[in-house]
Request: fold
Amino acid sequence: MNMFSSVMVAILGVSPAIASVLSSRAVPNNTLPSGTNPIKVSSAQFLGNLTADNSCSHRDLGFSGPINGVWYHIFGDTIWCDTGVTDPNLDPGYGPDGVPGGFVPFVRDSISQSTSNPLKVHDLHLNDNTPVPHQNQFVPYDKSFGEAVDTGFGGTSLCETNATAGEAAFFYLVAPNGAPSKGAGVARISTAFGTPTVEARFGSQGYWWDAKTSPRYGDQAAYRDTQGDYIYAWGGAPLSATGEATRYVYQTRVLATQAFDLTKYQYWYGRATGWKTTPLTTFNEETAVMAGAGQGQVVYSNYYKTYLFVHTDLFHVLIRTAPKPEGPWSADVIAWTPTKFYSAGYIYAGVAHPYLDTSGKTLTVSYTNNPNVNDVVKITFA
Ligand SMILES: *[C@@H]1O[C@H](CO)[C@@H](O)[C@H](O)[C@H]1NC(C)=O
Ligand SMILES: *[C@@H]1O[C@H](CO)[C@@H](O)[C@H](O)[C@H]1NC(C)=O
Ligand SMILES: *[C@@H]1O[C@H](CO)[C@@H](O)[C@H](O)[C@H]1NC(C)=O
Reply:
């Protein structure tokens, strides 16, 4: 066969190789940034470190969310300061590289209440250590789910489900140390007796979405829409995803009043198809909602009248915007470039504190400056 006829066979007969190229080209890339990001930062002021007014620890994350008007922060690994230490900067047991000198007690997650001071939170669920109490776990590990004290656990924002009842949904990822993630789940949180407390975790193993086959919904961000009735949860790819699909973010939503019923969740299939109740099993650039995103928080900006996703890469605090929580999301604007606390370190987990200025003209943001320092910066928009 000469060159010409082999080309003709390929075109007229549509060889399997060509068909696959054509079909993959037909899939839109919904993760590409879209629309104009209106954010203009006029100034950013570093405020200091976020610490507790009644306890002492080194910790990460701290995602915020309200229940009935009171804002709470959910921290990740919470490493207690030494006995009697009240200032984490003066903790002798904690080396400059963040590596504890010996065994340091810690809990895998904890909860604090916001205060009007952007640099102070009030820690909740304290133990009886003296003279300085330390935090107990917010979501205790559960032996009946095969969990132990060292089972990794990461949560994002509380999402209010019923303000009157003082109830919220909490999204989390169960990720045993040194092993693949198990799955993402939801807990019911109640303030019926004051302090937010876990009432129930759903799923036979304490999670709903098996990380082998489902995105880790809620591990990236979780948000109770202030402009509508839904809770949105974003998560990274399942272990079954391959290639570039592993780097994308997928999303689910549920009516806030139905957040504890798995059958009521809807899954995003991409801009052409929208939401479906059938769980998503195809992971690609069409069914994903965004790419290149760190853990963070969505807030509705009263100033820009748009949704903001506050997140980070390893070096910057970033904000992308969208007209609706399901996107399309714009390109990022760099809101702040932190000074890394530790030369080999990095930053992660963008946390929004919108309650400090409901006009939205400024947004106070915190993030984890590795290892376990929570920096706070106040961003003023132009
Ligand atoms: C889709 O867009 C992302 C950026 O959002 C890019 O990294 C990726 O390579 C694109 N994927 C394909 C298959 O074109
Ligand atoms: C923040 O905490 C780090 C680590 O403890 C410390 O080195 C730094 O001085 C603190 N910054 C401020 C402004 O307190
Ligand atoms: C919210 O909780 C209150 C108090 O428990 C209850 O009366 C009300 O029916 C709940 N609302 C919904 C929508 O379930």
User: Anything to note?
Assistant: The domain at 35-381 is CATH 2.115.10 (Tachylectin-2; Chain A).
